[in-house]
Amino acid sequence: MVPVTVIIALLIIAVPFYMPDALMNTVQTGKTIFFLYALLIIFPVAVLTVFLGPVFKHLSFGLIDLTVLGWFIYIISKNTIDKTPFSLLYAGFIGLAIFYLVLRFIKNEQLKWLFIALIIAGAIQAVYGNLQLWGYYPSHHYRFKLTGSFFNPGPYAGYLALMLPVALGVWLFYIKTEQVRAAGLFVNSLNSAVRYLSGLTIVTIVLVLPASQSRAAWLAVLVSSGYLLAVKYPVVHKIKKLKLSLRQKVASVLLIVTLLVTGLTGMYYLKKDSANGRALIWKVTLNIIAGHPFTGTGTNGFKANYMDYQAGYFKTNPGSNEAMLAGDTNYAFNELLQQTAEHGLTGSLLLALVFISVFAGNGYKKQKSAERHGNQQFVVIAKAVLLSFVVFAMFSYPLQIVPVKITMVIALAYLAGNQKRL
Predict the structure, then answer these.
(1) Coil, strand or helix at 209
(2) Which residues pair with 230 in a beta bridge?
(3) How far, in Å, CA of 204 to CA of 199, rounded?
(4) DSSP single-letter state for residue 320
(5) What is the C-alpha radius of gyration for the chain, rounded to an integer number of angstroms?
(6) Within a 13 Å sphere around the CA of 205, how many CA atoms are in the beta-carbon half?
(7) In the predicted structure, residue 25 carries a pLDDT above the cut 60
(8) CA angle 164, 5, 388 (to 5 degrees)
(9) Cα separation of 110 and 116, whole Å?
(10) 101-121 burial string, b = 16+ CB within 10 Å, else e?
(11) Range with lowest mean pLDDT among 6-10, 40-44, 360-364
């Protein structure tokens, strides 16, 4: 499966930049079309490799596979029953399912190289964003100076928020030269180069991310980075061993709570109207869910129904000051709410189970030589990526951003390959 891995690595780096001028909404639509065309090459090569080689020996079916399969079957079945018109978003969903299947045929030793491709892609995007800030390249939105190769700073920051834990994880869990000396000079040199690349990526992302003013991305980075640091440096266990008095414990808790409240309050007032606007969108979305609790409105149904429900909200709240924040939107700025609105409680529960299967329990294989192969380290990195995704999804729309979805699927597939058999 080496040829497939190389093609996918090139796809990871190239897809964020595909923006053909001939397409309407080129920055979003172009990426989806590029991904689907790439699958026309990747899938046949993968199938051919399956028939020519014994790739089934390393395959196992775990809890993540089961939950992903359940969610996919539900969405396809519901769209068939609802007679949902075939759209680019629907085609992209099927493409991601095929992409996940292809990744599951690739050995995890090869899949790890895709994380290196993500670091390269993240570094390129971060440098591109810095050059936009310095005025060397134009943005792709007339209102914002910084967009990367995306349509506004939000998706760009969300993409970087998933790239940063990959780079930070590789840098933190770097395998020292002494530990891999037997692998040879080339592997040692490559190993060092990857770590330096990770450090460069971290620096360039940290330089550009604050300028995006994406609070969702900032939170995602803080949580995922905190998780990686907690695994690398088990400070919590050391704190538990300290014999603190009751007064010291209370003071520590109050300090942490004060810092959290101060930080969240500052983030709220940084873009107060934006935060209030999202709160309005969430209220209207809850009304959509109440109107279609089990069936949902169908794929793309949120966009089609939002304005009607927003009008209904203001009919029942005629004197609300929120009228100044009203407007049309394609996104709920909370993926759990949007998935529930479109696919019902069943669909959102199945999607939640996918992520629960990642973090719940200790269902991952024990590696015989973790220091040499690094599988355990990349399990932690993949979890950090998905944790960043979940946090960002609470305040934004990552399931509408193709490069972010590709990254999510890579992390899921890698973790699925490391899970124990059912």
Answers:
(1) helix
(2) none
(3) 9
(4) -
(5) 22
(6) 30
(7) no
(8) 25
(9) 11
(10) bbbbbbebebbbbbbbbbbbb
(11) 360-364
Return the ∠ at Cα 335 (arms to 330 and 339), rounded to 5°. 85
Characterise 341 by phi-psi region: left (phi > 0), alpha (psi -120 to 50), beta (else). alpha
Residue 197, Cα to own-chain centre: how many angstroms?
Answer: 21
pTM: 0.87
Tens-place pLDDT, residues 58-109: 667 788 999 999 999 999 988 888 777 777 888 888 999 999 999 988 888 8
Amino acid at 309: Y
Q: Report whether 404 contacts 287 (CB < 8 A).
A: no
**Bridge partners of 419?**
364
Query: pLDDT, tens digit, for every residue of 112-137?
Result: 889 999 999 999 999 999 999 888 88
Beta carbons of 282 and 334 less than 8 angstroms apart:
yes
pLDDT tens digits, 176-230: 444 444 444 444 566 778 888 999 999 999 999 998 888 889 999 999 999 999 8
Q: What share of the chain is helix, strand, coil (3-state, %, to 5)?
A: 75, 0, 25
Place of tokens 């400070």: 235
Residue whose C-alpha is closest to residue 395's, from 226, 257, 221: 221
Closest CA to 271 of 184, 213, 230: 213
The pLDDT of residue 346 is above 80: yes
Judge whether residue 374 has pLDDT over 60: no
Q: Which amino acid is located at 129 in the chain?
A: G
φ, ψ (nearest 5 deg) of residue 213: 55, 30
Q: One-letter amino acid identity for 355? A: F
Nearest-angstrom CA–CA distance, 230 and 233: 5
Give pLDDT tens digits for 130-180: 999 888 888 877 788 888 888 888 899 999 999 999 999 999 887 544 444
Question: Cα–Cα distances in Å, from 187 out to 47, 174, 179, 355, 375?
Answer: 30, 13, 11, 34, 16
Which residues are within 8 A (CB) of 65 and not within 5 positions of it... i.e. 6 or more apart? 104, 416, 419
Q: How far apart are the first and last CA of the chain?
A: 25
